[in-house]
């Protein structure tokens, strides 16, 4: 049912009253530094000597032994001790895209730290595609892991390796891995051209696997119970094929990938679910990424992607007649389900990237009753950023360690259990329950972690057991790195 005009007036009225619409000063540079630091707390494998989150130590050192291969390294996705390939690859793509679009705005030390975080992930992703016609998609049995509350340094749960061998399909994970490696080759090329070449070669190989054996990885019966319901493919594999091809086009300048995007757009559902962007649905991001080609006048045959990107931007603008996004009373973009801030950070990222593309080509978006330009898109992104950093009804920063008021009881094993450096004795699976059930603040501050976020009414209980709200994830933080880089370089934007 189409909303009434009164609905739009009410929405605009609500937006004008959001606390974050006020001019409040934020230390965006500090938030940027902390958002990057968070990734050091998620590391698996042998930690380097310059590790800055010092309450962490080595973990997962035997990963891959059942396949007689080295699968150490990479990142834990959230507050557990499993390495899920699907969200890890998406996280890596978003970190790389942050550098590609906003790296020139980052202070040199933070650009370096972001590149280190990217390389930590890509070193692992290269291992996952190191064997012919096989991709490793996960390490760790999540069903057993999730019944334990155990430090990664102590974990004695099965480090089960989940792989997909051809001709079984894994188009989603392989396609996203191709995107991650291709985007990272761009982000890291200036610092290490040889490594960038390696990333691009493997991106091409991963994409070939994805395209040759089409289907969702979670449809494979031999791994389904390990990947679902955690990172099951809910939205189909088709978007990852187009997404991977788009990144390969941008990284390689190979027109073959443009032809692929053009010829496969309709058959792979490029017009579907255009208003979603996250680890499982790439459509909105794909449309923004491909629109760069159209806006620069390279490929008018891809105009449908730009039309979808324009449509998405219009849905985000309260003043637009096509606006239909849901907000909390305090002004946060809200979508039902857990870990809501993943939507706020990815959408803010796309708003800023599209604003850049429009500005460079002196264009705007026609939303029917209003033309929307770069300023409006950036203003909308800033409202989300400021809400996350504390301009909300609770006055709470949803980034751990930023401001004096932030979540103290996040759903994160390493953060909530005593550090192995303070408590070297082994803590077994169920022995950690006393720490999980404790009402005390976490002893180890996971600086920079952005939690799942508040409810639709802006409430937040700071409850370790309420993982949908209190658990941080890498894919919440990754796009926020680019967003914060922009506002750190433009602190007076209002």
Describe the protein's architecture and organization.
This protein is mainly alpha-helical and 494 residues long. The chain has a single domain (5-489), classed as Glycosyltransferase (Alpha/alpha barrel), CATH 1.50.10. 45% of the residues lie in helices and 3% in strands. The chain has helices at residues 5-16, 28-37, 85-102, 108-128, 142-145, 171-188, 193-212, 224-227, 238-252, 255-264, 283-295, 303-315, 341-360, 374-389, 413-416, 433-437, 467-470, 474-489, and strands at residues 83-84, 134-139, 161-165, 365-366, 371-372. The strands form 2 sheets. The protein has a 3-stranded antiparallel beta sheet. It has a two-stranded antiparallel sheet with strand order 4-5. It starts with a helix and ends in a 5-residue tail after the last helix.
Mean pLDDT comes to 92
If strands are numbered along the chain, what order do they take across the biggest sheet? Answer: 1-2-3
CATH class: Mainly Alpha
| Distance linking N and C termini | 35 Å
Shape: globular
SSE-based structural type: mainly alpha
Number of helices: 18
CATH topology: Glycosyltransferase
Beta-sheet strand percentage?
A: under 5%
Strand segment tally: 5
> In the CATH hierarchy, what is the architecture at level 2?
Alpha/alpha barrel
Low-confidence stretches: 1-23
GO molecular function, one term: cellulase activity
Keywords: Carbohydrate metabolism, Cellulose degradation, Glycosidase, Hydrolase, Polysaccharide degradation, Signal
Active site: 411, 462, 471
Organism: Hevea brasiliensis
